[in-house]
Amino acid sequence: MTRVAELARSGKAAREDLTGSTITVTSLGPLAGVVTTPVINHPEVAIIGPNAIIEKPVVVKGEIVVRKRMNISSSFDHRVV
After folding, report:
1. pTM surpassing 0.85?
2. Does 78 participate in catalysis according to the annotation?
């Protein structure tokens, strides 16, 4: 894991270094996605992606206040679940 992380950080990871996983974790926030539908990378069984953090009004102890919120989008292969 350390070797692959170092390759990815340095921009030197080859396709072979990044394949063979069961689940993908992706970051959709930089694309400003708030609600997305990530597509599973076959033959993996799931993909999970946090979306952009946005400020939204929420009720806290009966008061409306602004809080940071983030949706997490996920897709799962129903045959495995």
Report:
1. no
2. yes
